From TrEMBL:
One of its GO terms (molecular function) is CDP-diacylglycerol-glycerol-3-phosphate 3-phosphatidyltransferase activity. Its main location: membrane. This is CDP-diacylglycerol--glycerol-3-phosphate 3-phosphatidyltransferase. It comes from Evansella caseinilytica. PROSITE patterns: CDP_ALCOHOL_P_TRANSF.
Length: 192
């Protein structure tokens, strides 16, 4: 297994770790940082989540730079992203920090695009991530991080940044999903 795929797998293994810190109250007190009152366990979870999310950029960069792009990597990378984002948003719904309707919209899009990719693979075609799909992922990571960090920094200027990012993430999620289906409608024509 090459290094980019090992990095991708490390992202998957970090998911349960960040969930433990996010969902199990350790009662370590709070961190008062840049205007926010953050439970320490949420802060640790956010750091692990951000590290895990950053491996998405790292594995892609390494695979392209050293020409180590593999079919396994093309399969594992989006799967790891979906597992990470799904775990984050479902956990944040459980904590009452993320609206269930937004999580449902995001998860529906993720499953739909995954289904599209699976159908296309049967025809020997790999649907690469679009620029909108990449922006969608960034917005979701920023929204989840801002929520775990209890709107840190933005509390100082009374801007509900985390709440704004929820809507940005949902809009980019919907737009990128529509974009995938419009650009790849030929997949359904071949399949029928």
């Amino acid at each position: 297994m090459n290094v980019p795929n090992q990095i991708t797998i490390s992202r998957i293994f970090l998911i349960p770790l960040f969930m433990v810190f996010l969902l199990i109250p350790f009662s370590w007190g709070h961190i008062h940082l840049l205007g926010a009152d953050i439970p320490t366990d949420h802060f640790v979870a956010a750091i692990i989540f951000i590290i895990a999310a950053s491996t998405d950029w790292l594995d892609g960069y390494y695979a392209r730079k050293y020409n180590l792009v593999t079919n396994m990597g093309k399969f594992l990378d989006p799967l790891a992203d979906k597992l990470l984002i799904s775990a984050a948003f479902i956990s944040l719904v459980e904590l009452g920090l993320f609206p269930a309707w937004a999580a449902i919209v995001i998860l529906m899009r993720e499953f739909a695009v995954t289904g599209l990719r699976l159908i296309s693979v049967e025809d020997g075609e790999v649907i690469a991530a679009s620029i909108w799909g990449k922006w969608k992922t960034v917005s979701q990571i920023v929204a989840a991080s801002a929520l775990m960090l209890h709107n840190m920094i933005f509390e100082l200027i009374s801007v509900p940044f985390a709440d704004i990012m929820i809507y940005v993430a949902v809009l980019l999620t919907l737009f990128s999903g529509i974009d995938y289906f419009v650009k790849n409608k030929h997949v359904f024509q071949k399949a029928s």
